[in-house]
Amino acid sequence: MSDPVTITMLIIAAIPATIASIVTAIITVKTFSVTKSTHELVNGSMTLQLKLHAKTARSKANITNSDVDIAVADLAEKMLKEHETRRSLIEGSMDKATVEV
Fold first, then answer.
1. Is 101 part of a structural domain of the chain?
2. How far apart, in whole angstroms, are the C-alpha atoms of residue 49 and residue 15?
């Protein structure tokens, strides 16, 4: 599980498809350390976006008390939590990996 190909596949599976093609291009051109830095940057940006959406959705739900708005806020918070869990698992695997250059 610590070989670069396995780690690369975990990274690609954990991030949205819209970003996966960019990360894939970088992985094929640069070393593992560059890939890891890029992954952390992209994942950090994704985390910020998910946090912003969850907070905004929850604020709107608290104001409107609409069942739909509450469901949207619940889903946004669930997506954030799932992303943070995947990020933690993947970054933990990346920290344990050794790469020969």
1. no
2. 13
Can you give the residue range of the structural domain that contains 79?
4-95
Domain count, the chain: 1
Are 61 and 69 a contacting pair, CB within 8 Å?
Answer: yes
**Per residue of the chain (101 residues), what is the pLDDT tens digit?**
466 667 666 666 665 655 666 666 666 655 566 666 666 767 778 888 999 999 999 999 999 999 999 999 999 999 999 988 888 887 776 555 544 43
What predicted TM-score, i.e. pTM, was given to this entire model? 0.55
Residue 27 burial (CB count, 10 A): 20
Residue 73 lies in a domain: yes
